[in-house]
Amino acid sequence: MLALRFSALLALVFWIGGLLALGAIAAPATFDVLGARSEDGRALAGAVFGETLRRFQTGAYLCGAVLIATLAARAVLGPRPRRVGLRMGITAAMVASAAWTGLVMIPQIEEAQRTRLASPVAPGDDPRRAQFARLHGLATSLQLVPVLGGLALLLFELKD
């Protein structure tokens, strides 16, 4: 039972910590160093961070699978975790958010970026910039679901 709980906590720490590190450290640093040089540097920063995020998504999916498997195993083997149904619901929302971001939003963002960069430098009111900004904002907001859900799951674990 201890191994299952440890695996779940490790998955939560990787997932939440990774998202926070990517958003608070890696993205700003990448765009500050590469993006400050020129529009080409900004495109390079976007490509580097996009690939980093794409690779992280694989880890997020694995973490989601570990969380679901360990919760199910603990529920079957006992003692049953408190509010296991709520925990499963939170985990399912986290996985759904990660899947939507990785499988739908990131490809749309990459396509919007390619479309925008394939044309001459667009003015600030270009609809392609607005579309990119909208998609980026939505994808960023969707990442709050795993962060907040993961923090809630950590709180449940602390109370067990």
In short:
The protein is mostly helical and 160 residues long. The protein has helices spanning 2-33, 39-77, 84-118, 127-142, 144-159. The longest helix has 39 residues, at 39-77.
| Helix/strand order | HHHHH
- Outline the biggest β-sheet: none
Task: Using the CA coordinates, give the radius of gyration.
Answer: 19 Å
Q: Low-confidence stretches at least 5 residues in length (pLDDT < 50)?
A: none
Percent in helix: over 70%
Task: Note the gap between the termini.
Answer: 12 Å
Tally of separate helices: 5
**Overall body shape:** elongated
Structural class: mainly alpha
The number of domains is 1
Mean pLDDT: 89
Oligomer kind: single chain
Strand content: under 5%
Description of the molecule:
The protein is elongated, with a radius of gyration of 19 Å. 86% of the residues lie in helices and 0% in strands. The model has no long low-confidence stretch (mean pLDDT 89). 18% of the residues are buried. The chain has one domain (2-159). The protein has 160 residues and is mainly α. The protein starts with a helix and ends with a helix.
